[in-house]
Amino acid sequence: MARGKLILIEGLDRTGKSTQSEKILSALGDEAVLLKFPDRTTRIGELINQYLTDSNFELPAQSIHLLFSANRWELNSEIHSLLEAGKHVILDRYVYSGVAYSAAKEIPGMDISWCFNPDKGLLKPDLTLFFSNQDSSSLQDREGFGEERYEKIEFQKRVRHTFSNVFDHISDPNRAIVDVSDRSIEEVFRYIEPLFRTVINKDLEGFTYF
Ligand code: FDM
Ligand code: MG
């Protein structure tokens, strides 16, 4: 049986990642599963959720970084099994968010290379779509924005910049940028559908790893 494909939707906050991930899932039906990182339902995920939602719960930047990575590792073998069973796995955020949000804190010693290290060896997606918009100023208008720890305009601007450095650091020919500015949900989906369908129809053997 052909293995399933690993498709990653990455990007800045509020660019429609979750909406499009759901649309891909509906388009693929029961051939696919959708996983979201952080997965807040595990024990590690509960800690991450507490860190993101409770400003009184402090952790060193290094510790929370390693928890986000540990959260990916705890699902790695499940993702592997799903792919081997022929299921396509759609990920809503993964390694690139992990590196970009932590490195954007600009903590001495916690550079991109340091941040990437604990994720080395994780399954590498067959396709990564990076959702981007022109600027972060419209974020303020989005309902609910500002409730979680990283939802601050200044920080989001640094994350945007850091993502592009992360992409320079981690090479990947199977990565595409999707500019969602001024595009409706349907327009974005029409743009990405041929991209993920092409990857799904490929006959790939073996896996690649970060
Ligand atoms: N985030 C997400 C990280 O800082 N590191 C990670 O490894 C991942 C997967 O967590 F601000 C950040 C990105 C975002 C926050 O993500 C919660 P969602 O997608 O808004 O739940
Ligand atoms: Mg969020």
TrEMBL record:
Gene3D superfamilies the record matches: P-loop containing nucleotide triphosphate hydrolases
Q: What is its EC number?
A: 2.7.4.9
InterPro entries associated with the record: P-loop_NTPase, Thymidylate_kin-like_dom, Thymidylate_kin_CS, Thymidylate_kinase
- Report keywords, A-Z: ATP-binding, Kinase, Nucleotide biosynthesis, Nucleotide-binding, Transferase
Q: Name one GO molecular function term.
A: dTMP kinase activity
Q: In which pathway does it act?
A: Pyrimidine metabolism; dTTP biosynthesis
What's the protein here called?
Answer: Thymidylate kinase
**Source organism of the structure:** Kluyveromyces dobzhanskii CBS 2104
